[in-house]
Each structure stands twice: as C-alpha cells, then as structure tokens.
Amino acid sequence: MSILYHNLSFEGSKDIIQPGSVDLFWLDPPYFISGKKKNNLDLFSGDRDDWDRQWSSLEDYLSWTKTYLELAYNQLKPSGSLYLCISWQNSPHIHLLLEECNFFIQNRITWKRDKGRGSQKNWKSMHEDIFFCTKHPSDYTFNVDDVKIKKKVLAPYKTETGENKDWWIDQDGQKVRLTYPGNLWDDFCVPYWSMHEVKSYAKTKKTPHNTLQKHNTQKPKDLVKRCILASSNQGDLVVDYFSGSGTTAISSRELGRNSIVFDINKTCIEILETRIREEG
Questions:
Q1: What pTM value is reported for the model?
Q2: Residues contacting 30, CB < 8 A, separation 6+
Q3: CA 89, CA 97: separation in Å to the nearest integer?
Q4: pLDDT tens per residue across span 128-163
C-alpha cells in the first residue's frame, strides 16, 4: 500500500500521521549546495534555485531542517529508524542537529556516486553522506542477514575435515562468501539514466514516447531498498517527506512495506504514479 500526497510539505503530515506510528523514515531533502546553477532545471518552475536555494542563509536552512527532524522524531515509533541523505558540505551541521533533536546516530554511510564534472581547482566531488539514526540507542530493527554482501574470497580456508569454511563457488565459478555490510557503499554509482527505473517515466533516446523529464536528484532504487530491508519489516510503515521521483514508495511496495510520501511538486507525484504503473 502506498499513499501519495501532493502539494503538501512535511508540515501537512501533522494531520495525517499519528505520533509514534512510523517504523522508518527515508529522507532525501534539498541539500542547499546548488550555488544557483541555472543550467540544472527544476521540474516545476524550470529553475533549480527554487528548491535547493530557497533559503536566504545557512542558518535559515538549518532552522528548516530542524523543524522536519523534530516532527519526524515525534512521529517515529520508539524502536524506529531514520535515514537522512545530505551533502558532505553540510554534513557536520546536520550531525549536530540530529543529536540536538535527540536522535542516536548509529552510523554515517558514505555513498560513492560518480557523477558530475571535475574541477580545475579542486578534487572532484564523488560521494554523499547518509545518516543512519534511531530513536532508541539499542532497541531498533536491523535485519543484517537481509543486507549481507557477497564478496570474492581471497583466502579460501577449509575446516579440519576439508570442507569449505564459510564460502562456496557461485554460478560464475567464483569462490565467494557473505560478509557483514559496511558503511562505504560503492555499488550504486551514478550515472544510471539508462536503467529501467528512469526509462519507465522519462523521455530518453530509447523511450522517446515518454513526456516526463528525468528527475534531477533521483536515488538508485537498490540503494533505498538496502535501507528499507535493513531497518524495517514486511507490513511496516515507511514515510518520506520529500518524495521526489517516488523511489521510496516504489521500493516499499516491492518489499511489502506500507508507505506514505509527500511532495509539494505535482509533477513529482505524476512521475511516481507513472512508475507505479510501469515498473514491477
């Protein structure tokens, strides 16, 4: 089940979501880093400045951020979790805000996303941060077996009886084993515009019949799914205040979770409704 609300910001969730009812938040808000780049278009107004630079100062942006974090904390179950995407530039400020809002920061995930152009006077920016937070320091869902990573075995040990020790040979003939997931994610790299989750709604060379444009800041579905798998169970409620292209709702549906998502941009909701029809 997915419930969609357009033309509503997170403030509108107060009348829809009861306090202490949400199992998991996935939040991918504006980053306040665009630098007023006019060549990166917003889906609604045609200007990225309208959504990523709508605050007059960093202080105003952080005040707005604190408002939705306090609301999310109130709506979260005592055992609930929250994932928050943010740029590395503002990550230190967000870290302090999360603690100020009484969240327990369990980890800060580094997501390698190789996109964008390089710089003549700086190192190319190739990662973003994803904070993993909980309301309780130790009582929260984390399904580690659902998110273990298959890796190639470099030192294939055997037991005393000659059997393989925690590894096997996969269908490609590689010696592999399951390992515990870490906080450096380099397997969801961007660009990924040719993937089905973009072609299902956006106008591309291979899908010229589509009329919608690619969302500027769409996250890979597998990245979102990893967080949902780890930090919720089937039938749980996942909430997203900033639906964007709708990846949270799509991922929740495919994993048997319920979701409520919001976006003030009616075009974003149209993208999501198209993806619900076309993906699966």
A1: 0.89
A2: 51, 52, 54, 242
A3: 14
A4: 999 999 999 999 999 999 999 887 776 676 676 666
Give the pLDDT score at 116. 63
> Which strands make up the sheet holding 127-134, listed edge to edge?
2-6, 258-263, 237-240, 22-27, 76-86, 127-134, 104-112, 184-185
Strands (E), the chain: 2-6, 22-27, 76-86, 104-112, 127-134, 149-152, 168-169, 175-179, 184-185, 237-240, 258-263
Terminal CA-to-CA distance of the chain, rounded, Å?
14
Looking up residue 13, the CATH number of its domain turns out to be: 3.40.50.150
Tell whether 20 and 137 lie within a shared domain: yes
Name the token pair of 125: 């920016």
Residues 129 and 160 in one domain: no
Range of the domain at 152: 145-180
Q: Classify residue 85: in a domain, yes or no.
A: yes
